[in-house]
Specification:
single chain; 167 residues; mainly beta; Elongation Factor Tu (Ef-tu), domain 3; SH3 type barrels; 2 domains; six-stranded mixed sheet; 1 helix; 12 strands; 44% strand; elongated
Amino acid sequence: MELISVGKISGTHHLMGTVKVASNFQDLSILVGSKVLIKNTSGMSKILTITNIKKISPKRLAFDFEEITNKTEGTALSGYSIYVRKDILGMDEDEYYASDIVGMKAITVEGESLGEITDVMETAGHDIYVIGSGKEEIMVPSVEEFVKNIDFEKRIVTFELIEGMRP
């Protein structure tokens, strides 16, 4: 079963080990009682059980874990990302969130590297993938005409660009 990142731990919230989580998800209350995988950039991981989730602000939540009982333990989790199974969120295998795309490598159908997808802008019509940054930034609408393949295993998105899309 595929895992999806629902947020990143940014520090502690109280003395009891509650952690602050930056997340783009509006409501994660469905996760209370679920086991989640937390993993940091160096590959360290743990499985924890969520006992409570509170909203702090629109993109910030407070998580309580059964296994974390004090501020020291909570502080040690800072920088870890939280992963859950897609089916817990009610998603099918072929469904994904726009935030899953950020960090993936972007290539053309000819195999030319375009860089890394750095952002996904939400618009009324469709999302726009932002590749690179600054003067080298490329913006590509998330429509079948331009997005030819998304390979989550290899973390590569294949695009077919038209003239004028490149800087």
